[in-house]
User: Fold these one by one.
Assistant:
Number 1:
Amino acid sequence: MKPFTVSEVAARIDHAVLKPNFTDADIERHATMCVSRGVKSMCVRPCDVALAAKCLAGSRVHVSAVIGFPHGHHRSEIKAQEAALAIRDGARELDMVMNIGRFLSGDYDYARRDIAAVVAVAKPKGVLVKVIQESGYLTLEQVAKACLLAEEAGADFVKTSTGFGPGGETSEIVAVMIKTVGGRLGVKPSGGIRDWKTAVAYLAQGADRLGVGSTEAVLDGATASGSY
């Protein structure tokens, strides 16, 4: 396995600040950590985008916002509006949850259009769109199908999990994502990365970003306790 430095791993981390009980003080504290550790982005709830952007102003850390989080069942028009407001508030990346129920119903056209509605808002602004599959609900064949739908809809990344659904990422799921769209779309494991070994294993496998809630523990070689 290729050795990764701490700064190399940090530069691939989207630090998740998404727990429902986080306060403004938590957002400010996490933003300070993100700047000091040199992570790629700080991923926040839609209501926190403006504050996060203020805290991260002048740094290299991007603001990411979740859209349709955590279940993906908002109407497409609402997701598009949520995306527009997040971009207005300073988001440079969007992590949207696809409509899992419609996808599992076999309504692939709806699932594709749902993603495309957010892409249509983001692309003109140069904002990246990552599509969260919530892969724990899917077979490996469905993971591949969801990746192709995201690509057809114009997304930039595919992502495994919200961290609030069943399971998280697995090496098998990530392998399918990379095989299906790697090199054309970015691949982001997320939802269960709680130690250094897991983080670098996914990067060595070919992942482009990592969704991590316990960034300091991972970068310091510890094992995070508790949930994502």
Number 2:
Amino acid sequence: MNDIKIGNILIGSNQKPFVIAEMSGNHNQSLERALELVDAAAAAGAHALKLQTYTADTITMKGAYTINDPNSLWNGKELHTLYKEAYTPWEWHKAIFDRAKEKGMIAFSSPFDETAVDFLESLDVPLYKIASFENTHHPLLVKVAKTGKPVIVSTGVSSAEDIEESVKVLRDAGCKDLVLLKCTSTYPASPENTNLNTIPELAKRHNTIVGLSDHTMGIGASVAAVALGARVIEKHFTLRRADGGVDSAFSLEPEELKALVIETERAFLALGGVQFGVQEAETKSLFFKRSIYVAEDIKAGEAFTEKNIRVIRPGDGLHPRHYFQLLGKTAKKDHKKGTPLQPDELN
């Protein structure tokens, strides 16, 4: 699969991980806080900032449903009220995007209906993200694909057949650059239900670049995902979880986001290739491996024993593989305590 170019950044299997800071509703309905989040994400080294583009009325309607789940972060909230609290006013998008671009980040969004795509096109976003709950919304997929821009799709709450069908819809409608993210759509997600081993299977089945939309606490799952082939990492982001907000409980703080950027890149760099033998960087360390040394003064004709020879550091004597071969053999010459044995004693 080919790399995807967005601005001056390449996303690909052989590229460093592309880290997306998801603002979601963590602006807490303050544009000033939203811009602070942009600045903090940029300072932490995130490559992209992502919003969600919808209104409460484009997703649901008043009175449609109230969450009744004691395990939910949003238990007791009516859906319409929750989305009203979480949504990012459309009139803020340009200011947020402009700030992100000023800070050197890619700025884009997840549209939740076709009108959101029209709006985001007016802002000339460079790519689109499809949220898990919208990944079977075929009219939306077609609308996004027809823009010709790269598309990132989260695969939460989806069967293998759903994903296959959605990928076909996108490709048939003209999507050439596609990324699939493993996602568990629980908030927060637990490590036990994250199933990172799905990541290489996603890549294999669909011949796409893959990644992780990570709702777990911390950064461990994301770092592990990179080792399994993830090259896009998306995490929700806030200034301080204590500030509250609809997604704050499972969002990273600035220091954690910085650690995510650093550690996912380290994980990528550490993958390397299959390597056996001594690397060039290790050659100086060879000296500090063990070899056979004289532990007591030895006279010519005297036998080598467990008392008068030892395997110690450094490594400038005979290889330890010769230790048992030497035991019982008689010395050809005198040897002083503390000196390395040399190959002439093997002849």
Number 3:
Amino acid sequence: MDAPSKYGHLRKENFLSDRPVFVNQAYSDTLFKPETAFPHMHIHDFVELSMIISGEGYHRTLNDLTACAPGDVYVINTGAPHAYFIKEKGDTLVVRNLIFDPSDILDAELSTPESPRYCCGLFREDPMISHIFLNPGFQEEVGRIMDRIEKEQDRKELEWETSVKAHLLDILIMCSRRIVGKIETANDKTVPKLRNRQIALTVMCEVLERYSDPAMTLESIAETVFLSKSHLSYVFKQVTGLSFSEYVASVRLEEARRLLRETNMTNEQICCACGFRDVPSFYRFFRTHVGMTPFVYRKESVNAP
């Protein structure tokens, strides 16, 4: 589900209201920049299997950045932030997505996150994401199965739901047998613990929901997760590589840029929508981080080819 017009929380009801599995093709043309990558990430309350069809770029998660190209498949669990980016301006990354809610279509053992067989074991190495590489033959086969799922759901012939479930299981099993990566162990100090990743995820969700509130603070969020401010600050930095204030600033900055590019809102309206306390502080912040005033940025964006 990449190349969203606005980062944030993608919800199940917008994709799975009339079918158990949603299949589509998406295009990402967002250039990767380390300092602004996080605001482009999104989360969802469903499982997403994304297969790179064409182009080259990057796939960004909470604590990992991988180069991706045709043949790469990523399965993103519920609540795990991620995004796709291009390497060079003018490129396009084409991704075919298959999304579903395991509890809606899979049997109990396969749909229970605590089970080792959850989603056919796709998350046995990492509870948030699974990386698979498919050679051209397997990639074509997965594409054909996705086509069959779409046809079954469109035609709704006898036992179509059973057929869709069988095709989905074929894809999950095929991918589960080809997982790339290593198993995280208790002695691996380089990977943040699952609990810390979950905490960081909670903070990011809170920020994405509340960035327009100038009164939002790390302390207020710490109270919602029952942690001390200092410990939460440490955990967030460990997982994301950013301080809490840096992350909030990046979210507000990217939203201000988007509003300047895509709307006719005044600077006062944008200041309020992005959580800045007043227009002068918004001007100073924007000029410091972008190198130009909001007026000049909007003018150059409009005139850009």
